[in-house]
UniProtKB/TrEMBL annotation, chains A, B:
It comes from the Eukaryota. GO terms for molecular function: DNA binding. Keywords: Auxin signaling pathway, DNA-binding, Nucleus, Transcription, Transcription regulation. GO terms for biological process: auxin-activated signaling pathway; regulation of DNA-templated transcription. Gene3D superfamilies: 2.30.30.1040, DNA-binding pseudobarrel domain (2.40.330.10). It comes from Salix koriyanagi. PANTHER family: AUXIN RESPONSE FACTOR 19 (PTHR31384:SF9), AUXIN RESPONSE FACTOR 4-RELATED (PTHR31384). This is Auxin response factor. Residues 135-237 form the TF-B3 domain. Homodimers and heterodimers. One of its GO terms (cellular component) is nucleus. The keyword DNA-binding applies. Belongs to the ARF family.
Length: 466, 466
DNA sequence: ATGTCGGCGCCCCGCCGACAA
DNA sequence: TTGTCGGCGGGGCGCCGACAT
């Protein structure tokens, strides 16, 4: 890999997929994978250090099986709530049946890390991915019915599709697009009707039936660097694939996760995890630098102001604000003093009025309806686009923390009260700290129809604010 | 349960399915489940004692994921190669997407058992299930094309379907059949053409497309005790559902199985397994009495004659004979002295000429073509229909063995040489001993086209013979 | 006994602009 | 700007017996 510290998906992950027998298959386009995963997903870069949360991994399995953990899981007292790991490898995958995207990561627990490792992780974070041009549309009843084709949003057609020859009557062309598996789909793109509009006609119904799409699912188009048209899907139907339960019991799965992590931690041997961004409630493999910033650059306390990113229905992002209303262990028996979902946050009602920042590929939508904004309630880790409020509580800089790590006695004494006395003079150099992994409950400050919307998110991209 | 010792599926398993949230769903018809599972599948009865083989369980996962076990699996030195368990519960399931049948079993390791338990297990074995009337047909290209309907085998239509009114011209009726999920399918059943034949026309294409069936898949019809028509499917496409790999790594799955069993064995606490009869190479939960008969009623030795049951293409059964050519550990490092696949068997060429016993619901097929006979190479545990050969090596009777169990010093000294000296006078009371779990490699005694067919089966219902 | 095919009737898929939101 | 609908033309679904194996 030429640029090991790059954080963008395109360079962070080797975009190859191997099946169970080790046969190399078609590679997966990283930009398309990213588009299908959603705007807030950001995989850590291979070769960097990460923090792995067994609780979060277990949560993903529970979400995939729609089943909570049972009581018969043995304790693994030697398995800490978080593991410092070296991320050896990241490969992108897509389910051949459903096109669901997921990533495979090979992690190796390490007992310590050096300054270079931390800096590499921080550098990978800062390199923002080049947002490729894409558009995403939720399919309507007309789009998916057998009665007609696909109505293309005007801006999308003009921005993504090759330009039409308007001297033709009507203007039309043949579009060729490839999906995640490199399958080719061809559509007739025509500009007709009264008033004029862009339509995909011939070939569209084959796509709809072939991918088994229904109204409410989403389809997206992007152009890669070679100006090739790619397309992907995102299913609205969030019913968990209960399929896996025919192979392994839920208990065995959870035990398998914990035992595999415990075994790897005891032997410092590599282990493999799968991260499914659209099934998992939260990322459970966090870049070391991001983890540091979340935990050590701020003094987490009750009443602290909070900012978090959500994904909107149309694949946009939206800030949301709230206040920390509680700090406690999610599972005090099994995972004591874990930072996984130890914060409760009450969300502001007023933040619904915040304007969503315009992003490329995002249709213009100025709706302030909270219900629609949060229909896609799966939370995501956000880009580091949050600005630090000058009145934020003081924290430690990256350099300060590294120095403390090299001075064990000092690090050991690093308590909230001590941290509070440190100077926050270098804070402005730090992007917002992502605390999403710590967020548990979402509480509305006002009883209204909004309660329906905010019940679902359990965690999301979050930043402390004043 | 009225008859706790019954071994038939209908009474052995509670035919209810619960989803992940504990909501009771429609019950699954046990006869239909049995028909879909195949003629050789025989689930142990709830309430009886069984022997659980972690190796076999792991094999099922490997087969489901089409991936062998990797090296990174930790050793579980305290987990024996077989666990004596009390089978608390058996529930029948069917995958809602694929109709694949599987069973969920709750096992609790026990350190000992009494005479009643052994007798109950033996009693459950002896109760033969009432073979319901059914027929099974492999779909042809014409059956699955959009050009026409389904050609019903004559005997099948006469035996299973309600009789037609032949005063009509042409004779026709509407058939209503329910699948495993209690979904209703209606077909027009007509007797027409030159020469006359039974056909399913209107409604058939909806079924084919709805179940996503292709030529080579099989469809089966049965009548339940209320004369209701039921239908099921068996897919020929044995491609493993790689879906589960998007949730959990193969390593974690294997670790999960072993760790769950080890934890349950250490605490004598219950654990849950899923048995998928059409994906698993062999059953890995064996009735205690069947295990006993396999291991203790015969002196296993090199050169011993061997008999095993296979499932034929048309859902029939077929005996196959061979000779034990080797006895050794499948995995000497991890599972020393395990009885799982420790026998190699060379199959007789001449056994291809054996007549298959006529069974209800099985179309007449006197083909002696070995290739076609063994196309369905997945092996199954068979019914106890094998007769004991008078010249068989001597073994222990059930009563003798029980007495030895109550006399530890005697049981401890129970060695092959010792057993050989015992009288075999009560042997005729014993059905053939099923050794299928121990069979590993299949070696043809003659190089020919038959080699292709016999490479695949790794184990099947087997009995020692002279 | 039953798998495949030519014939062909008619259903419904799918392309069109009209309209409205 | 774009979702839904009536209109309608034609491709293919699906029912039929012929024929072969």
């Amino acid at each position: 890999m030429k640029s090991p510290a790059a954080g963008a998906v395109g360079t962070a992950a080797t975009a190859t997929a191997t099946n169970g027998e080790g046969v190399e298959k078609k590679s997966i386009n990283p930009e398309l994978w990213q588009a299908c995963a959603g705007p807030l997903v950001n995989l850590p870069a291979a070769g960097t250090h990460v923090v792995y949360f067994p609780q979060g991994h277990s949560e993903q399995v529970a979400a995939s099986m729609k089943k909570d953990v049972d009581a018969q899981i043995p304790n693994y007292p030697n398995l800490p709530s978080k593991l410092l790991c070296l991320l050896h490898n990241v490969t992108l995958h897509a389910d051949p049946e459903t096109d669901e995207v997921y990533a495979q990561m090979t992690l190796q627990p390490v007992s310590s890390f050096d300054k270079d490792a931390l800096l590499r992780s921080d550098l990978a974070l800062k390199s923002n991915k080049p947002q490729t041009e894409f558009f995403c549309k939720t399919l309507t009843a007309s789009d998916t019915s057998t009665h007609g084709g696909f109505s293309v949003p005007r801006r999308a057609a003009e921005k993504i599709f090759p330009p039409l020859d308007f001297s033709m009557q009507p203007p039309a062309q043949e579009l060729v697009a490839r999906d995640l598996h490199d399958n080719v789909w061809t559509f007739r793109h025509i500009y007709r009707g009264q008033p004029k509009r862009h339509l995909l006609t011939t070939g569209w119904s084959l796509f709809i039936s072939g991918k088994r799409l229904f109204a409410g699912d989403s389809v997206l188009f992007i152009r890669d660097e070679k100006q090739q048209l790619l397309l992907g899907i995102r299913r609205a139907n969030r019913q968990p694939t209960n399929l896996s339960s025919s192979v392994l019991s839920s208990d065995s799965m959870h035990i398998g996760i914990l035992a595999a992590a415990a075994h790897a931690a005891a032997n410092n041997s590599p282990f493999t995890v799968f991260y499914n961004p659209r099934a998992s409630p939260s990322e459970f493999v966090i870049p070391l630098a991001k983890y540091y910033k979340a935990v050590y650059s701020n003094q987490i306390s009750l009443g602290m102001r909070f900012r978090m990113m959500f994904e909107t229905e149309e694949s946009g992002t939206r800030r949301y604000m709230g206040t920390i209303t509680g700090i406690s262990d999610l599972d005090p028996v099994r995972w004591k003093n874990s930072q996984w979902r130890n914060l409760q946050v009450g969300w502001d009602e007023s933040t619904a009025d915040l304007k969503r920042p315009r992003q490329p590929g995002m249709p213009d939508d100025d709706s302030s309806d909270l219900d629609s904004l949060l229909k896609r309630t799966m939370p995501w880790l956000g880009d580091d686009i949050c600005m630090k409020d000058p009145q934020a509580p003081p924290g430690l800089s990256l350099v300060q923390w590294m120095n403390m790590q090299q001075n064990p006695s000092l690090a050991h004494s690093m308590q909230p009260n001590y941290m509070q006395s440190l100077s926050g003079s270098v804070l402005q150099n730090l992007p917002g700290a992502d605390l999403s992994l710590s967020v548990r409950h979402v509480i509305t400050s006002n009883a209204s129809a909004k309660q329906r919307a905010v019940k679902c998110p359990k965690a999301a991209s979050a930043s402390t604010t004043a």
